[in-house]
Prior knowledge:
Alpha-Beta Plaits; alpha/beta; TIM Barrel; binds manganese (II) ion; four-stranded antiparallel beta sheet; 36% helix; 11 helices; eight-stranded parallel beta barrel; binds phosphoenolpyruvate
Amino acid sequence: xxxxxxxxxxxxxxxxxxxxxxxxxxxxxxxxxxxxxxxxxxxxxxxxxxxxxxxxxxxxxxxxxxxxxxxxxxxxxxxxxxxxxxxxxxxxxxxxxxxxxxxxxxxxxxxxxxxxxxxxxxxxxxxxxxxxxxxxxxxxxxxxxxxxxxxxxxxxxxxxxxxxxxxxxxxxxxxxxxxxxxxxxxxxxxxxxxxxxxxxxxxxxxxxxxxxxxxxxxxxxxxxxxxxxxxxxxxxxxxxxxxxxxxxxxxxxxxxxxxxxxxxxxxxxxxxxxxxxxxxxxxxxxxxxxxxxxxxxxxxxxxxxxxxxxxxxxxxxxxxxxxxxxxxxxxxxxxxxxxxxx
Length: 342
Ligand code: PEP
Ligand code: MN
């Protein structure tokens, strides 16, 4: 339930109202801005008599939130959320480009790729150190050594880094090295991991599970937020359908749905969505055209020899071209896409 207060409400009156609501066993989030005082009520709001609340002299409007998610809901937080990553902003009309290899493989590999993607215009460097592989016999990642190499790549290029935490056991270690913690598609409903992410001080990139609905996706974000961390960027990375020509089916309508339903930024991963390097650039352009806040693209200096996902990785020179073309699309649609929530 959301309560919008009258502009004339004083701080004292607002605090009094919050205290009264809390006595009903509900949690109250003060979600307002300077222009609008908004209270979000979380818990069993059936206890509240709406007509009674509407009659309160400080209350302008009472709204029931239809969606099962509240903290992630746009109704609760009308303005777009913006994540600040070392001076770079994700969301709020800014186009974020995350690039790097699927896995960190060696010092030379990650430092070379980091320098290329930086030169091409990427804002954030990706690279997996703990890898969720379908086969236990496939390369599992370098673990902490990979994290150290990512940090070195950051020092060399100045690019903030993102890497995946696969379990609650490796979570703190990953958080101590990275700027953004990725929760992968396979873990989207790993609720203990989501709760752990909710206690993190760093932003989380939550990838959509391959069989998850949009509502389930947002409920997973809600888990993280309900545990205390509202710095979240969502990532659509394709879903499983009957189609098997592509690795997954990129569900671009998710961007529109998420923008309607939520204030959280959302980016697209066209690499895992298609599984084919030559589809990555066109799908990146489409992602930007539909209003995504950014893209995450796999780049490898030697895709034929990559230890994971070489088939969907772009060579640095192709990535350079991609940055130019998505930049043109972004400029072309600037006045058309406006999801500022006002
Ligand atoms: C990744 O981004 O490295 C990854 C494993 O992706 P996903 O979780 O979307 O499969
Ligand atoms: Mn990959």
